[in-house]
Design a protein that fits this description.
Oligomer: single chain
Helix content: over 70%
Number of helices: 13
Structural class: mainly alpha
Strand content: under 5%
Mean pLDDT: 81
Number of strands: 0
Low-confidence stretches: 271-290
Order of helices and strands: HHHHHHHHHHHHH
Distance between the termini: 47 Å
């Protein structure tokens, strides 16, 4: 080794030591085994509960298709859709401004960005069911409590996801607007949000699907919709009625998923044509390989 090479070698900082993959794998396996043992899951617990499972499954068939019940199920399904849409509206109105303030490339004042992040974290940390219990005690039983509960949680989730999409946009147009004297608000509204609008729209539509499922869960505490009817049927051991309600939930979720997919396709967020799903650099790479 020459004197020059020796000087270069000694000038380089020592490489950081990293834990071997074997150690990380062993730690992960220990944590997984500890979790499985601590929760007591396994075939034994399933075998012990087989009699109750057989009784419940047997009671679900045949589903109750009484005309009066189907009418009540349709009414509950409509109420569930109303809860999900109203909660989505409130969640968007609260979550998107928080997302803009949280995004690092917007460069909002630090105190404002930190405050928005704290609010968003708090909203999504509390489960919809707990929010529903609070609002049932505040505004009473009914769909209004469900709307407020789902809206607050979805606002926190949308703020987190949409802020990450805003931070992932192309920085070129953003810097160009700043160099030409654009303010923070102008740069955010004209340089950052338009680039991420397709993916943000897809996130909002997916949140609508989540709101449908959440409205079923919070209905068990009296927040309206199909969930409230499910809770009543389950507590009264009306298993055939429960089967009809469960089937209606599946049909409702499938329908919302199809509608959401159509809207995402129209917005360019459900195919390779969407810049938010497949970046332009990746598309160009694949085209060059053809």
């Amino acid at each position: 080794m020459t004197l020059q090479q020796e000087r270069v070698t000694t000038a380089l900082p020592p490489a950081p030591r990293r834990a071997p993959r074997v150690v990380l794998t062993l730690v992960a396996l220990v944590v997984i085994g500890w979790s499985v043992a601590g929760t007591g899951i396994g075939l034994g617990s399933l075998i012990e509960g087989r009699e109750g499972a057989v009784q419940i499954v047997g009671g679900l068939f045949p589903p109750d298709l009484d005309a009066d019940l189907l009418g009540r199920v349709a009414t509950a399904a409509v109420e569930t859709i109303q809860i999900s849409v109203a909660a989505l509206l409130l969640g968007v109105l609260i979550g998107l401004p928080l997302a803009v303030l949280m995004a690092g490339n917007v460069q909002a004042p630090r105190w404002l960005s930190a405050g928005a992040r704290t609010v968003a974290t708090t909203l999504r940390s509390v489960h919809e069911l707990l929010w529903a219990l609070l609002f049932v005690a505040t505004v009473g039983l009914g769909p209004a409590a469900g709307v407020y509960a789902i809206a607050l949680h979805s606002a926190g989730v949308l703020a987190k996801l949409c802020s990450e999409q805003l931070e992932a946009v192309d920085p070129g147009p953003v810097e160009a607007m700043r160099l030409t004297g654009g303010s923070r608000l102008t740069t955010a509204l004209l340089g950052i949000v338009p680039q991420a609008r397709a993916v943000i729209a897809s996130q909002i539509l997916y949140q609508w699907e989540c709101n449908i499922r959440s409205s079923v869960v919070i209905g068990f505490v009296g927040a309206g919709g199909i969930g409230q009817a499910l809770g009543i049927a389950l507590h009264l051991f009306r298993y055939q009625e429960l089967a009809t309600l469960m089937a209606s939930v599946v049909i409702l979720v499938i329908a919302v998923d199809r509608i959401s997919k159509i809207f995402r396709g129209r917005l360019g967020a459900a195919s390779e044509r969407s810049g938010g799903v497949v970046p332009s650099a990746i598309r160009s790479f694949w085209r060059s390989k053809r």
